[in-house]
Amino acid sequence: MPQLVTVEWRGEKYPGVPIAGGTAWELFSALPRPDFLSNPRAGTEYPHRGFAHANEVLRDGVPVSVDDDRSMMVPLAPGLDLEYVRRLTQTPHLDPAARVLLDRVRASSPLVVGELMERPLTSAQVARLTETAAVPGGFCYRRRDVAHLRTPTTRSILGGETEPNEPWVFALQWRVADPADYHAPIAPEYEGLSSMPSSDRRGMPVLGTGFAISNGHLLPEYVTADLVDLPLPDAAKIVAYTPNGTESELFAYADKQWSPLTLERRVDIPGVEIGRAAPVRRILREATRVVWKGVSGSLVDADEEWGRFRLSRPGPDALSRTGAEPVRRGVYEKWVSRGELVPAG
User: Fold this and answer.
1) Which end is more exposed in the chain, N or C (fewer Cβ atoms within 10 Å of the end residue's Cβ)?
2) Which domain of life is it from (predicted)?
């Protein structure tokens, strides 16, 4: 472990170390603290630990993120502070001025080539992913924005698709090849997602502000452009998180297979054998854009007679016209006759 340094978080001082490239901090305490977890390290003098976003941590009275030129910035003005901006991110149907402000905040830290992204996965989604080399289309997050979320409970805000009572939750991590492959899920382009009733939704509601539901942080959300799957780049990883905040790397992708990175036997993924390589059966090259019943989408699976159609702009109207069903947060699909699909112009 790197050398501990004394930092301040929420008005109290703790020994801590930076993690995830300094975008988050692991803090330690000899005594129990609210929001702290048991420290799994044997023989430590600090049996309790917590995790904090770097923007919340001070060292010598100065935010530790001061040297991070990719940290999101909030413009200064009378009555304008971080808490005010956070409240705006939780407010659907923003007026134009508020929309401009949130766009400026996001633009202060744009996606770049090589950015590490992360998408929450259920165990069933992990099993499917080991057979198909694709970044599952839909909602995703920058690693730098969510690195402090290390338990199933805290990570549930990243879509809310976690399976009840699972001791582990999972995520796919990969690096951005082209920032144009990602959109901000905001109105008007993706306004239909924020209009979905709960009966037609998987996971957490979509606010349409471009940020996830959060009581304490700015968590910018992204979607793959048109909600398509992207080819999986080499060095992608599948990781797992436990209730005590442990992050375990399970598999890495390269040369058309997932190779094990651990022998962690406590992780149970039905259909996946931890510690054994998993060859990929189907390699995604490029998404096929199609139109069905006048609705734009993509072809995500097919045989000779049928195709799996995914909506590119889900909304109540598109659902009523197509009968597509939610398969995960923001993603709606339906099997249709291939003869009815028209290539997108």
Assistant:
1) C
2) Bacteria
pTM of the model: 0.93
Place of tokens 């600090």: 46
96-107 and 82-89 helices cross at what angle (nearest 10)? 110
The band of 59, judged by pLDDT with boundaries at 50, 70 and 90, is very high
- What count of residues does the chain have? 345
Distance, CA of 7 to chain centre: 28
Tell me the CA distances in angstroms from 197 to 35, 89, 92, 179, 194, one per residue in order: 33, 20, 14, 30, 9
Cβ-based neighbour number of residue 174 at 10 Å: 22
Q: Give the separation between CA 18 and CA 176, rounded to whole angstroms.
A: 23
| pLDDT (average), residues 99-128 | 94
> Which ranges in 166-208 belong to alpha helices (H)?
191-194
Sheet holding 230-231, edge to edge: 230-231, 132-135, 282-283
Q: Which three-class secondary structure state does DSSP give residue 218? A: coil
Q: CA distances (Å), 300 to each of 136, 297, 331, in order?
A: 10, 9, 11
The span from the first CA to the last CA of the chain, in angstroms, equals 55
H or E element in which residue 31 lies: none
| Nearest C-alpha neighbor of 126 from the set 326, 274, 309, 242 | 274
Distance CA 329, CA 318 (A): 16
User: Going by DSSP bridges, is the β-strand pair 57-59/62-63 parallel, antiparallel, or unpaired?
Assistant: antiparallel
Residues 6+ apart with CB under 8 A from 96: none
Tokens standing for 237?
Answer: 């990883």
- Give the integer Cα–Cα distance in Å for 95 and 101: 10
What band does 287 get if pLDDT is binned at 50, 70 and 90? confident
Give the pLDDT of residue 306: 95
